[in-house]
Amino acid sequence: MIYTVTLNPSVDYIVEVEELTLGGLNRMKRDMKLPGGKGINVSRVLKQLEVENTATGFLGGFTGGYIETWLRQEGISSDFVPIEDDTRINIKLKAGQETEINGAGPVITESETASLLHKLDALKPGDIVILSGSTPPSLGGDFYSRLITVCKQKGAEFVIDTTGQALQDALPHGPLLVKPNHHELAELFGVQIRTREEIITYGRKLLEGGAKHVLVSMAGEGALFISEQGVYHASAPAGQVKNSVGAGDSMIAGFVGTLSLTGNVLEAFRAGVASGSATAFSDDLADRALIEQLRPLIVMSPL
Ligand SMILES: Nc1ncnc2c1ncn2[C@@H]1O[C@H](COP(=O)(O)OP(=O)(O)OP(=O)(O)O)[C@@H](O)[C@H]1O
Ligand SMILES: O=P(O)(O)OC[C@@]1(O)O[C@H](CO)[C@@H](O)[C@@H]1O
After folding, report:
1. What is the residue range of 237's domain?
2. Is 237 helix (H, G, I), strand (E, B) or coil?
3. Which ligand has an atom closest to residue 280 CA?
4. pLDDT digits (tens, 9 = 90+) for 98-126
5. Is 85 an active-site residue?
6. 31 occurs within a structural domain
7. Marked catalytic residue, from 86, 127, 161, 249
8. Residue 28 lies in a domain
9. What is the CATH number of the domain that holds 121?
10. Is 0.95 topped by the overall pTM?
11. Ranges for the Carbohydrate kinase PfkB domain (predicted)?
12. For 180-222, how does the pLDDT look when each residue is reduced to its tens digit (9 = 90+)?
């Protein structure tokens, strides 16, 4: 079974204005309220790919209820710990370019934390746990380490999509996949990255550090796949970009979902890029029809 863990879900409030006037009254041209948080996005795209999975993490308040209802309506299995505080609202402002304002996240109590750890006791060897996104401040900076320890004890694989120290700390425990974008990769090593060769150099360091597979996403420039099986580039197909929120999460869903179905890493890479691009070309996350349409258009080349 695949589990996604979203410690800090969100209602993503997508707000579109013709032109933003700072300090003045702006009227919305269009708005949308979507369930968000990185693991939840992964679950929604896995569902499109017909890969069974369960979404877990913390949900509370009217915002948590909104997300829970949405997931139920999409037929996604969910098993969240209910919390006292409200799940955050993240603002995604589209005014020519996209500006994001993400909340810090709710207070999580000790008993709510214990309930999540208790749920993970049910993990079994062969399960894959996808740990995605930020951690609410009240959980402390090392919470992912505690979850990874549980995964390891239970013999489950884990994928981690986070940044900074939490990602560094996870590497020696052998994540199945890490997927920084090229900016996050540069930040992680405190360097400037200008060329594809430099991306490969630093991507390889993640592999040497313990990751089993590394995807470095580069938005419209596609992605690089670095693993013991080799290094490959995949182009992103051309299309009209509508939304980049969740493109990276969709890529993780495409990769992990296809790897779990086929065991073929290159097919997984192709599906990852197709899923990321399908989301970039959609208002909401990718749907199955568009992923399937884009899949054969991805050109992969060994480097
Ligand atoms: N402009 C685009 N055109 C085509 N494909 C895109 C575009 N932007 C993103 N994608 C696809 O989605 C994948 C992931 O995108 P990106 O590198 O932006 O990830 P990310 O920074 O983690 O995304 P986010 O944080 O916005 O979810 C890319 O490798 C590509 O396949
Ligand atoms: O604040 P975090 O947890 O880092 O990111 C949260 C978030 O920006 O990530 C998703 C897109 O990847 C959105 O659905 C959500 O709003």
Report:
1. 38-62+79-86+107-302
2. coil
3. 1
4. 999 999 999 999 999 999 999 999 999 99
5. no
6. no
7. 249
8. no
9. 3.40.1190.20
10. yes
11. 7-280
12. 999 999 999 999 999 999 999 999 999 999 999 999 999 999 9
